[in-house]
Amino acid sequence: MQIWVDADACPTVIKEILYRAAQRVKCQLTLVANQPLRTPPSPFIKSVQVPAGFDVADNHIVQQANPQDLVVTADIPLAAEIVEKGAHAINPRGELYTKENIKQRLTMRNFMEEMRSTGQVSGGPPPLNHNDRQKFANTLDRFLANT
Fold first, then answer.
1. Cα–Cα distance for residue pair 133/89, rounded to 1 Å
2. Over the stretch 107-131, which tens digit does the pLDDT of each residue have?
3. 27-62 burial string, b = 16+ CB within 10 Å, else e?
4. How far is residue 134 CA from its own chain's centroid?
5. Prediction pTM value
6. In this structure, are residues 65 and 85 in contact, taking their beta carbons and an 8 Å threshold?
């Protein structure tokens, strides 16, 4: 099992939780981004820089991820592809995407995007707060304990 991170938009505090978890359970953690990333020195942590472009990092993750891997992403279309592939996805707020909930999340995401494009809704989700960070850490710990 490996953890992949859609790192371009992943909050620093979430990356730090992931660094500690990878060290603790001795699991490979790979951050994928279209810009250089600093990672702590560790045999379990690495970063991959992909070329700039729409969905290049997402496509790299989908191609590389194996069933039973975990992908950390706030990108619901990426999460849907990962779940369909048989792997697991979790967002930075600690929600684990499953075959049972991903279609509903994707439908809601598409609906909200349509509302934003017509000007009926503006903005995105609220900033990550302490409860979100705690929920992410707890969900990640439960997932790692069950693998």
1. 16
2. 776 666 776 677 776 666 778 999 9
3. bebbbbbeeebebeeeebbebbebeeeeeebbebbb
4. 16
5. 0.87
6. yes
